Amino acid sequence: MPKVTNIEFYNFRNFKNFKTSFDSKLNILFGDNGCGKTNILEGISLIAKGRGIRNSNIADLIKKKEDNFLIKNKLEINNNDLNIEIFTEKRNDKFKKIIKINEDLSKDSQDFLNNSLSYLIFLPEMERLFQAPPSYRRNFIDRLIFSSRNDYNILINKYKKSLVERNKILQSFNIDYDWLNHIERQICRLGLEIYKLRASQLNLLNNELINIKNDYKFQFYIKLHIKDDFFKNKINFEEYLVNLQESRSYDKQYGGTKIGPHRSDIISIINNEFEASLLSTGQQKAVVLMILLAQCINLVNYKKINPILLFDEIGSHLDKQNRQILLNMMNRFEIQFFLTGTDKNLFSFVSTNAQFYNITNL
After folding, report:
1. Are the CB atoms for 160 and 57 separated by under 8 Å?
2. CATH code, domain carrying 341
3. Which of 32, 52, 66, 281 is most buried, taking the most CB atoms under 10 A from its CB?
4. Taking a C-beta distance cutoff of 8 angstroms, is the pair 333, 48 a contact?
5. Number of domains the chain is built from
6. pLDDT average, residue stretch 156-179
7. What is the largest CA-CA distance in the chain?
8. Position with higher pLDDT, 360 vs 258
9. DSSP label at 304?
10. How far is CA 302 from CA 147, 192, 206, in A?
11. Counting beta carbons within 10 angstroms of the beta carbon of residue 76, is it exposed (0 to 12), middle (13 to 18) or buried (19 or more)?
12. Is the pTM of this model over 0.85?
């Protein structure tokens, strides 16, 4: 399984220089708000492709008044030690993240790293996941899909670019209908693939959530589904294309594209009675943790992927049920955990050996 054994920061976020080693199982970072706990998780998440758990602009990761940052990691994968360097490089007035693996910048090395790493992430705002805008819930599910197939972001980005291109064509004075037809066919192909992957992801989660409820007597029976008036008819390619073509006038007038997976919402029904948005903050957190537990089971047992768990500010609203879910994760899986909270005492329930780090005093 992949494990982060050491990390060093130079001019990264609030750290001028920082260095520490990590336990191979459970790492708990505690300290005052603003001391840098989340920044450490962000630095760990940057080992994989992308812009980290906050999806930040690369330039914003550089400590103020500095020109660049450098992160050094030691990573263990399948008993092999890797030295990872992550740094910034300015190209065409834009900062770009560069990753070097054992001094190697080759695509093969990058692909190996990307195929070896998977993260499951909890962020504080997820406590109100079901009261957030639909786009946040879509991103939440998309991140779960990404944890098992790291090419998924390519599909999402192609789809978004195609929507932008179609909108430009519709707003142009002289419409190139050949190009518009090509883009719309591409939107349909990509959109159907996204619908398919999201539906498959929810099906996997729902099956595992039933097992979790039955095995551990959790309070909630949870069922996730896609809310999308267009998709619920199980649209096929030709129907999708016809609907897209018929919406041209509307989309030209109002901008955007009124149908497709970018308009979907993800709904969670509790005990076959009501939506999760009606739950308290602590209860919504329990639902999110159950979903993450279900995904962890899917990854480890069926995908043979051992994710690294990055749970930021997980210490708040930890009632008995939430503690039980966390303990289940810790005791069930031989994977690496990084948890943060404001106080060490928030994690007094942890029954396994853990390494504690007081970030305030660094």
Report:
1. no
2. 3.40.50.300
3. 52
4. no
5. 2
6. 96
7. 68
8. 258
9. -
10. 13, 25, 15
11. middle
12. yes
